[in-house]
Specification:
- Helices cover 70% and strands 0% of the residues.
- It has 151 residues and is mainly alpha-helical.
């Protein structure tokens, strides 16, 4: 195995889970995985550029998003219908009604437990901006699901 292959394998082990989760939060299960594959393929083809970037995961996140632009956008599906875990039945529809930025913030931070700083870096925003999307998204979810927040 070459040095390039070794480096890229380690890079993929570190970055792929966050990248996939982020893109699935944007596009849904199938298109999110396609976007992840496209981003990582681009990364391999442009390995010399990736190695020198300050935030290669954030760049590949944008590459993955761009790879899905030309396709007709189907309805957001967080996971295939036949594999939904035991969750509030209205949650998928409520998530679908959030803005893309709010959905990404809520899903990555609360569903996957990824740290706010890490999510902000992945999507290319400040932590305070992410916090705003998170707060607005949670408020919309509460209203949509009829949940009162404990204050």
């Amino acid at each position: 195995m070459s040095d390039d292959e070794e480096w890229f394998e380690g890079f993929v082990r570190e970055v792929e889970p966050r990248l996939r989760i982020g893109l699935v939060a944007v596009f849904g299960q199938d298109r999110g995985r396609d976007a992840t594959a496209a981003a990582l393929a681009w990364g391999w083809e442009h390995l010399d550029r990736i190695r020198t970037m300050v935030n290669p995961a954030g760049y590949l996140y944008r590459v993955g998003r761009s790879s899905q632009r030309q396709r007709k956008r189907p309805a957001f599906r967080p996971v295939p219908d036949d594999t939904l875990p035991d969750v509030e039945p209205g949650l998928p529809k409520a998530l679908e009604r959030l803005s893309e930025k709010q959905r990404i913030a809520v899903v990555l931070v609360h569903a996957y437990g990824i740290g706010r700083r890490e999510v902000a870096e992945l999507v290319g925003v400040s932590v305070s901006t992410l916090d705003s999307h998170l707060a607005r998204g949670l408020e919309k979810l509460r209203k949509s699901l009829g949940v009162m927040a404990n204050v």
